[in-house]
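Run: sequence + iron/sulfur cluster -> complex structure.
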Amino acid sequence: MMTAFFDSMLQLITRTSTDLPPDVRAVMKDALGVEVPGTSSAQAMNIIAENIDQAADAEGPICQDTGMPTFEIKTPAGTNQIWMREQIRQAIAEATRRGKLRPNSVDSITGKNSGDNLGPGTPIIHFHQWDHDEIDVRLILKGGGCENSNAQYALPVELPHLGRAGRDLEGVRKCILHAVWQAQGKGCSPGAIGVCVGGDRTSGYAHAKEQLFRTLDDTNPDPRLAELEAQIMATVNTLGVGPMGFGGAVSLIGCKIGALNRLPASFFVSVAYDCWAFRRLGVVLDPVHGSIRRWLYRDPDVHQEPMIPAGAKGFRKTGREKVLTAPLDEATVRSLAVGEVVLITGRMYTGRDAVHAHLMKHDPPVDLRGSILYHCGPVMLKEGDGYRVKAAGPTTSIREEPYQADIIGRYGVRAVMGKGGMGAKTLAALEEHGAVYLNAIGGAAQFYARAITNVAGVSLLEYGVPEAMWHLDVVDFPAIVTMDAHGNSLHRDVEQQSAEKLELLKA
Ligand code: SF4
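>> structure
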């Protein structure tokens, strides 16, 4: 019996959720130095960097979306995989109880959240047998925003702005560029991608995700794929998507490509997009006790330098920030313009997919006139009769596009806040009713949790913790106006400008 196995798994899950691996930290630190100071992109990178440090220091989730736990495990012959699977499931439930993971497992038919991250298909655990006398366990936590930015292409295909992608590595190159451009800021760029050339539709996606277990600084053993990876990295950052899709210098921090044989009739290119919150770690275990022999991807004896030096921590005010006190009035909101940074104080309400669907059929549980509706599914810990926020960054707003305009008009919402921007219908509603879209920095869940001073209440908790409407009191909560009440949208502009740059990479 491996007496230490459960504890080793709990350590692995906790560390993966709260501390980025050194290779990811290194490229993020480089990216931090590349953005032009004073721009929205630089501000986003600073908040991200601060968030990475805060998560590691407090052992709190880096991002509130702790993703789909995916384990890749190699065991010697004779290991009891059934028992190991059950121990991992219990460790996942315990990590959820401790607030290291958000309850993320939802019944696809009823919409009910299981509350402990367990259910059919969750967590994902893949076992492989190998010839070594130790157990290798690797874990990746990949969230919904970046998962929704995955893409799969069946070649040959005509791609917008890039023309025909044929059945060769040149066609693969075009698909990769298209996937990064298409993701814009919705997957919390800068991102990293795993790619599979070939396979069938299912094995292609699985193999693409497996590429994300490679370190960002490794070299592909296949020289043809190594060359393609280098080619992508040398050109992709000219696209100008930038952090959060704000139009800065760094859109991608890594590209890892694998290949599988395919059927003669099929040629798939599968792209697994991961966000900057690229949570991936592993452990090698003693096969008798299940204790940790060594960590993978990190050396616990090496001191981790903070992303931001001690003297430079905290949100860097320029003096140009606009102070907003919620609830908001129409004149104040109409005075805001794209590019302005706001600092919010007052009450805001969270609402994502279930709340939006609910509001289309029912009156709101609170008066939303003048309100800020925050697209966020936080991690909450119950304490006595109340709750404590453990992580509370924004979720991808575009999912609410079918509802948002109606909800703004019907209930008098003055600001919608999330990440990645929204579409033309919402933009028109902002203009018509006098409202704005505020972009918070995706994944900065620790940073924003510290701006929430009180959980004043909760409505619609029957939809589960991430989907409930939380009543949050905030102080100096920073966000950037990216869609205003005058028909301007930074997201539309960056998409158009980056499309022009994409065309330059056609050949
Ligand atoms: S950083 Fe963004 S894309 Fe990544 S898990 Fe968090 S919210 Fe999702």
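>> summary
The first strand starts at residue 68 and ends at 75. The pocket of iron/sulfur cluster is lined by residues 63, 65, 67, 143-146, 187-188, 275, 277, 393, 395, 442-443 (CB under 6 Å).
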